[in-house]
Amino acid sequence: MAGAVAYEEQRRRQVEENRRKLDQLKLHHLSAALRDAAAAPRPSPAKSAKRKPRGPPPADAPPRRSGRVASLPEQPNYRFEDTYADIKKSIRGSRTHSTRTDLIDRVYATEEARTHATDKAEQLQAKLDPSHPSFVKPMTQSHVTGGFWLGLPKQFCTKHLPKRDEWITLVDEKGAESDSYYLVRKWGLSAQWKAFAINHKLVDGDCLVFERIHQTRFKVHIFRQSSYYE
Hints:
The chain is α+β, with helices and mostly antiparallel strands and 230 residues long. It contains eight helices and seven strands; from the N terminus they run αααααβαβαβββαββ. β6 and β7 (217-223) form a beta hairpin.
């Protein structure tokens, strides 16, 4: 018990000695000052910097332009009225060359007219010689305008068409012949199909029956979507 009392007394004297030394060094005052300084908000250097007022440019100063367009002869025209006039002029000029790729020359078939032409084609196909393989192909815009690409049924191609790229002869109902190049890897007609489509005035909604009368020779039966209105 006496040892515990002596230990507590020694501890009390040590604490008082440490407090006296801290008071001499004034460390607690320095700690409080640092804590207050860290808590105080600091003004932003960017906000504290004063910007010089910018006056109007001289009357003879050139307009400011980026380096990318500074060398161009004149500034671009962003007025819609002028741009629209240029577009109309371009369209009028392109129509003088009789091109079917112009969007304003396209024909958009109704679902009724499209179905009418397809039904007529399927009725004819049912009457054809079974020894002549055939398929029905309705026309869309990509077949008769723009890209002029005619994809063929894959199953028909693998079963009845050559295993390599080859010219295919198309014979219309009047006996006129034209050639088109068959691409075996894409299962479709590419080169010269455009000429066939234009010469026969094919439009969106028309429907064709391709009847193979020889290994690389097809008779093409054309059914017009416009016949729906007749």
